[in-house]
Every structure is written in structure tokens, then in C-alpha cells.
Q: What sequence folds into this?
């Protein structure tokens, strides 16, 4: 039996109408001539892969998708997404037959993968669309303009089973107010585009910008922007915060499982992790590392730890176990009872906790906090 809202101990609530409003605001910002490619990867940054993508197709006019892995793209196809899906990274050679069967769009940057794709396409009597990936400085996936690109162009010319549809690159530091790196990458990208035009590829779909560049670097737009974080309301761009006035789509709640007093000098959690200096009231709440909360957001110096919200008030985390978490509720006004709702991410009364706040406590990125959330919390999708 699948889990239900009633049986769930920790719940990720995905408010899809907010996502729709975010996309409307993003569209107003980028204008009508730039397409949004929704990048469905890393469990949709905690929101699940398929459901948000299907909603964006059905209600937000998203017609193009990308994933990092072929497994994510298969989840989209299984959910009925027949639209183009660009796989941004490499796939195992053993996955090539399925890749061709599913009409996925490939990212190409070397010789071996295009040859394998073309051979399989021949076997299946199909053509495969490909986007050329230029490496302009991230040094992750892709190849440099100049001689390496010239060689790839020759390879692709000899493989009529492959249809070159697009070209893209990925920014290394769109998160900085200093755009030197971004503009250096763009200059290299432009070199590659000119080289492709000279080779006769003059109608390619060109894309470069991610979330940060979509907000802060319109000069990087071209034909499309590739977005994941932004549609969920995470503006990780430099400068003015949340200038598009996006709403966080995701909230995360759980319950109080137990409360108790602990005397000063007694200890809390495994390994005598926390020894309170004062008589402390503890709430045990129903989430933990097994739900994918970043444990780096807690330390033995609880003054540095991140909070949860209980009855509209902040309460400090003490320690996370796999299944339960200890919270200091000594200063929370009113009575905290077993069964009370605890907000891990989201709003309760006048208080709000964002994933960015948790990331700051854990000295990591917002994306790390979101993508770390496991499949254990129940996903509640709000459609209207
Ligand atoms: C993840 C990813 C994106 C989207 O990133 P966001 O900053 O979350 O919008 C775009 N392009 C590539 C290549 C990616 O890996």
C-alpha cells in the first residue's frame, strides 16, 4: 500500500499554482521570444520528477524538458510526457538502445557517443536529435570551440542518422555580481556559434542561461533558458534578492512525537551529543536524516543551528537522528503537545523558514538542501 497524507510522518507539500505564478513572472521577465526548458533533475529539487513536469506541460505551457540522467527522462516518458527531452549529461553505452527507442535528445561532445547513437538509430530505422555541448570554462561536460569543435562537426556530418538541433553551454559562475567569468564564457560560446554558422549550422536552437543568468544576465538568453531552481521560487542570482517576487513552492512539515524535560547536565541524543546548561524542554519531532534533512545544519553549539517552527514560533534544532529530531522548545510560548504540526520549511504565522536559511546554517548551497531530500517524505501535490 502506498503511503497517504493520513499515514505520512513527514510531508513535502508542492503548491503547483504558485509554480504557475512563478512561471508567469519569469515569462514576463524574459519576454515572449525566449523559451523555458524545464530541467527535471535531482528529484525535482525535492519536489519529485514527474508531477511538477506534467503540471508545467498541462498548465504552464512548458513544451521542452531536460534531465541530467536517462532514468529521469524515462520517468517523464512514463508519466506521459511525449515532448522533447534533452539529456544534459552522458548516458551509459548500455542505455543507447532505450535512448533511441524513447526519442530522447542527446548532448554530444565526443566521437564515441555519436557513433554509438547513429549505429543504434540505423538499427531501429530512426533519427536522433542532438545538441552540441560547448565547454566554455566549467570544464565538466563539453568540448572547446576551435579544433575540437571542428572535429565534432566532421564526425556529425558523416552520421546522417543524427540531426543537429541545438548548441549550448553551461555557466560556471552566474552567481557572482562580477560578470567577468560569465562574459569570458560567452565570448568563447560566441566563437563556437560563429564556427557552427560557418559550417552551415545557422538555424540551431541556442541556449546558455540557468536560473542565476535568467534573473541577472539577459545578455545570455539566446533562444531558451534552462531552469530548475527558479520555477520553484529559488532565486539564487546575485544582487537584489528575489527581484522577480517569486513564491516558494515547497513546504515541509512533520509532527511532535514526544515532549519531555531534561535537567541541566543530563544529555540528549546518541554519544551524549548535547548536554544542556539549563533545564530544557525537548520536543522530539518526526523527521530526520532518513528524510534527507542536511545534518550539517546542526552542531553541538546549538546557538549555530537552524530552526523549525512550532505553533508559529521558532525552535532550535539540537540533533538529528535517522527518524527523529530533537528540538529545544523551552522558550516556545504555550503548550507544545504530541501531534502538533512542526514546519521544517515554509510559513507558520508570521515566521518563515526557507531552504536558503537551512543552507546557510549548513554552509552549503540551497540546491544541496533541496536535492538531498529523500523519497521518504510524502509528496502532497496541490493542484488548485
Ligand atoms: C541543473 C542545470 C540547469 C538548471 O540549473 P538551475 O540553476 O537550477 O536553474 C541548467 N543547465 C544545466 C546543464 C544543468 O545541469
A:
Amino acid at each position: 500500500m502506498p503511503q497517504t497524507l493520513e499515514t505520512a510522518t513527514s510531508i513535502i507539500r508542492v503548491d503547483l499554482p504558485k509554480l504557475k505564478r512563478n512561471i508567469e513572472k519569469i515569462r514576463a521577465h524574459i519576454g515572449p521570444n525566449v523559451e523555458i526548458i524545464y530541467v527535471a533533475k535531482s528529484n525535482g529539487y525535492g519536489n519529485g520528477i514527474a508531477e511538477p513536469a506534467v503540471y508545467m506541460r498541462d498548465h504552464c505551457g512548458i513544451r521542452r524538458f531536460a534531465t541530467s540522467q536517462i532514468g529521469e527522462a524515462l520517468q517523464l516518458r512514463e508519466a506521459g510526457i511525449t515532448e522533447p527531452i534533452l539529456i544534459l549529461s552522458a548516458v551509459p553505452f548500455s542505455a543507447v538502445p532505450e535512448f533511441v527507442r524513447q526519442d530522447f535528445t542527446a548532448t554530444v561532445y565526443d566521437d564515441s557517443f555519436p557513433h554509438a547513437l547513429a549505429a543504434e538509430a540505423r538499427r531501429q530505422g530512426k533519427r536522433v536529435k542532438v545538441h552540441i555541448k560547448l565547454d566554455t570554462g566549467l570544464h565538466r561536460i563539453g568540448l572547446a570551440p576551435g579544433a575540437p569543435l571542428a572535429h565534432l562537426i566532421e564526425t556529425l556530418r558523416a552520421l546522417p542518422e543524427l540531426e543537429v538541433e541545438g548548441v549550448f553551454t553551461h555557466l560556471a559562475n552566474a552567481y557572482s555580481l562580477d560578470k567577468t567569468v560569465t562574459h569570458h564564457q560567452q565570448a568563447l560560446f560566441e566563437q563556437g556559434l560563429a564556427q557552427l554558422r560557418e559550417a552551415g549550422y545557422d538555424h540551431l536552437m541556442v541556449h546558455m542561461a540557468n536560473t542565476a543568468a535568467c534573473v541577472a544576465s539577459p545578455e545570455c538568453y539566446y533562444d531558451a533558458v534552462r531552469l530548475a531552481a527558479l520555477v520553484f521560487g529559488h532565486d539564487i542570482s546575485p544582487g537584489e534578492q528575489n527581484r522577480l517576487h517569486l513564491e516558494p513552492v515547497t513546504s515541509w512539515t512533520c509532527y511532535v512525537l514526544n515532549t519531555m524535560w531534561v535537567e541541566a547536565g543530563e544529555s540528549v541524543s546518541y554519544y551524549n551529543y548535547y548536554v544542556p546548561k539549563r533545564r530544557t524542554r525537548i520536543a522530539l519531532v518526526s523527521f530526520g536524516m532518513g528524510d534527507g534533512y542536511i545534518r550539517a545544519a546542526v552542531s553541538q553549539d546549538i546557538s549555530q543551528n537552524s530552526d523549525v517552527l512550532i505553533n508559529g514560533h521558532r525552535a532550535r534544532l539540537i540533533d538529528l537522528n535517522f527518524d527523529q529530531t530533537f528540538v529545544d522548545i523551552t522558550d516556545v510560548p504555550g503548550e507544545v503537545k504530541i501531534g502538533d504540526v512542526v514546519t521544517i520549511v515554509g510559513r507558520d504565522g508570521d515566521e518563515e523558514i526557507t531552504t536558503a536559511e537551512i543552507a546557510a546554517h549548513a554552509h552549503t548551497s540551497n540546491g544541496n538542501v533541496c536535492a538531498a531530500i529523500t523519497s521518504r517524505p510524502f509528496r502532497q501535490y496541490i493542484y488548485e
Notes: The two ends are 26 Å apart (CA to CA).
